[in-house]
Amino acid sequence: LHAINYSYHSQIMTTKTTQSNGAADANAPHIEPNVYLKDVSYEAPNGPLISEQTVTPNVTMDVQTTINQLGPQMYEVIVGVNVRSVLNEKTLWLCEVKQAGSFILRNIAAAEVQRLLSVFCPNYLWPYARQTISDLLVKGGFAPFLLPPVNFEALYEQTLAQQELLNTPAANTTVN
After folding, report:
1. How many angstroms separate the CA atoms of 83 and 62, rounded?
2. pLDDT digit string (tens) for 64-113?
3. How far apart are CA 1 and CA 17, in angstroms?
4. Are the C-beta atoms of residues 67 and 76 closer than 8 Å to each other?
5. How far apart are the C-alpha atoms of 12 and 9, rounded to whole Å?
6. Is 41 exposed, middle or buried (CB count within 10 Å of its CB: 0-12, 13-18, 19+)?
7. What are the Cα distances from residue 80, in Å, to 17, 89, 119?
8. How far apart are CA 55 and CA 87, in angstroms?
9. How much is the pTM?
């Protein structure tokens, strides 16, 4: 396990907080990640046989994040990625990966925990998911495929906006 000490202030991260005497500050924000592969599936129904056509396959991607609280200061974050390549209505390959991490959070303000779990943690896990999918495809006889970057910050802000709309009471209307 590698521990990362950080301060999270409006998108600014500092990797180590120390006291004036040089000792690590025991009250500094602290995150301790443990990354692991939770689930993986790979399918190539027709093998790596690529049609002689020069048509580029259609690749679709679906990303989901799940957060589970495992203890008072421990959370599991799972980034689920489903990627499918289709050519002429035939699936060339399909990869489903659930890249996960357990994150111990200490001395984090309660108001920042959800943002941290929804933005920082998925961003931390994303390179592992990218590498796993690329490796699966290479081992399956296909060219490597790197997942495009995902803006987890924008997705989090979009989710907050949708929740805000759902929680807004309907305007009072009077019909005579």
Report:
1. 7
2. 999 999 999 999 999 999 999 998 888 999 999 999 999 999 999 988 99
3. 19
4. yes
5. 5
6. exposed
7. 33, 24, 14
8. 8
9. 0.77
